[in-house]
Amino acid sequence: MRRPILMQILVLLALTACDSEGPASNGGPLVLGEGAGTLCLSAQPGTRVTIGLDIAKNQGDKLVTISDVSLINTQGLSLIEAVLVPVPTTPDEQGNIMLTGNWKSYPPPADRVPAEWNSRKAAKNASIDPSASWGFAFGLEVPAEGSIDGVLVDYADSSGDHFQARTTTRVLVKQKCS
């Protein structure tokens, strides 16, 4: 059932609505997410998790190409991979557009995520057309409880100008979230 994911999205939206920091793009055209907040995901040590609630939007008029993806201030977690997933165009039964969502596995269960997951591509070396949006998801290895302050994306536009963008959601992975 998709209710846990929908609840996570609603909680994340509520958290981001309370914060005025907004998306961080360091002056470049690529924006990841729409506000700051904290997400806690319950998971056992020795597992993997999926985080997939952000949209990567190229707000510029030039193609951008991602050169690197890294974790910001990571404690106890490591990046498995980051992927771009086409944003679904068909709403679910409740009229919502479902992104990849958060899961206690990586990759997420194929029968529980939108079909667009099957068309994902590695974020590193991927290009995003002007005005295009993609879902941004990543897998984390969880050797112990930990956290990240976000994900940093290095990229360049087709003119060769280099930029960085970051997600603005802090992620906590704990055995039990309170």
From TrEMBL:
Domain of life assignment: Bacteria
Tagged with keyword Signal: yes
Keyword terms of this UniProt record: Signal
Position of the signal peptide: 1-19
Protein name according to UniProt: Lipoprotein
